[in-house]
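Chapter summary example: a protein plus uridine-diphosphate-N-acetylglucosamine.
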Amino acid sequence: MTKKILVTGGMGYIGSHTVVELLQHGYEVVIADNLCNANISVLECMSTITQKRPTFYNIDVCDKEALSYLFEKEKPLDAVIHFAAHKAVAESVQKPLKYFYNNILPLLNLLECMLVADCSNIVFSSSATVYGDPDGLPVKETTAFKKALSAYGSTKQIGEDMLEKTSAAENIKVISLRYFNPVGAHESALIGELPLGTPNNLMPYITQTAIGKIKQLTVYGNDYDTADGTCIRDYIHVVDLAKAHVKSCERMLEDKMESRYEVFNIGTGIGCSVLELINSFETENKVQLNYTIGPRRAGDAAAIYADVSKANTVLQWRAEKNIRDMVKDSWRWEMKLHNAIPQKTT
Ligand code: NAD
Ligand code: UD1
């Protein structure tokens, strides 16, 4: 029988790519998204790619009544994938309560609705941010958390803790996926990350500089203790990341979990420096980037990359796309956006 998955935040960047993969793997998908960081046109784009249509509820997952109605209307739901959250780390430092509210309340509401509706499977969007600046590399799932440096980071640590404790006491199984640095876009260039003001993350900064929307990219420090002096991260293609969610659903629904609460690092396991990413972007896309070396950005770890052996062996998921795919797909998406909405230079 077709399995039905509720995807909160399914209109967003990672959510939309996951909805596409779920539909392509034969799942029925129900999306709950209030469009606070997404555009309704994404629905049409997902249908164009898959020739299938997810059911869409324009609701705020903070609204328990609306969520209960959805659970009642769509029963039985086999699993939930919970993406809906705010994600701007710097904003969360300025407005912590906005983040505690929107990133914690929906999880509480979901768990309560799941218990009432007898839906016992949930996949949670966690983040490498839970590790902070780690003492050893690569980071394993067993690496101890450091104190979170932002309210955003706290919400991911709290979310994992809520889920672990709930799974120990109730009939709820959980897979928390700790994403490293998601980049790229669907190869169709129909879905990708929508720009929201000046980007914070490196890849959108690179593509917006290349297209001329931003005049110059600043490399935040080249005096780190790394091979070329710039910071090292584990970039993961969003389509590979989306596929990890499909694997997680399969694992839960086929009763393959070894414990009721499981955690997986989702990255490539390969560290890539800022300069390496810039060089790959220039080489693969044959564009020159206007960049300069600037001072370090406060709070940046010199290097962080994942040990992905648990995801490879236990979840049986492995990243298939490399840095070349990531820079090419990111650039294709930026060019598509630029043609759709011509941008002003800042
Ligand atoms: P996104 O902003 O593109 O998607 C989030 C979606 O959730 C949006 O469509 C938004 O409209 C919706 N949403 C937010 N609050 C909602 C609410 N209260 N009710 C209903 N809908 C709501 O973000 P993303 O990059 O796709 O991230 C998805 C998840 O992955 C988030 O939980 C984020 O914290 C986590 N994550 C993201 C990254 C990253 O770099 N993108 C890294 C690690 C973890
Ligand atoms: C950020 C988030 C983290 C989140 C991750 C993935 C912070 C503090 N952390 O991590 O919670 O999980 O994104 O989305 O925001 N860089 C430049 N120039 C730029 C932009 C970035 O040199 O204009 C460098 C940074 O110094 C860093 C690397 O590029 O070394 C990657 O930065 P970024 O994309 O912001 O991701 P993270 O800092 O790893």
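Key point: Residues 9, 11-15, 32-38, 60-62, 83-85, 87, 102, 106, 125, 127, 179, 182 surround nicotinamide-adenine-dinucleotide (ligand 1) (CB under 6 Å).
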